[in-house]
Design goal:
The chain has 95 residues and is an alpha+beta fold. It is built from three helices and three strands, in the order βαβαβα. The chain is 45% helix and 14% strand.
Length: 95
């Protein structure tokens, strides 16, 4: 997920919140892995997404990103249909 805000105060609060969210998630068992990366810390995959958004291909996207939030699901997150649906539901409601 790309996280972006126009106001500098909102950008600072979002960075702080997402860094704390990433750290706290590590202490919650059976949750998908969460990773927050700032624009200067992007992986190869995230760089390609960022470049396609920032080079003008998507005119609806204008503010520069605060960072990128990614979730990784492991087999333990989807051991049953109920657990898989719960993980997806929580992720969708996170937005």
């Amino acid at each position: 997920f790309i996280v972006s805000f126009e106001e500098e105060m909102e950008r600072a609060l979002a960075r702080l919140f997402l860094q704390q969210f990433e750290g706290t998630q590590r202490n919650v068992p059976l949750t998908p892995h969460c990773e927050f990366r700032r624009p200067n810390q992007l992986t190869k995959e995230l760089k390609s997404v960022a470049e396609s958004l920032l080079d003008g291909n998507d005119s609806s996207y204008t503010p520069s990103p605060v960072g990128f939030l990614s979730f990784t699901f492991f087999p333990s997150n989807a051991m049953s249909d109920a657990r898989r649906m719960k993980a997806v539901e929580l992720l969708v409601n996170f937005l």
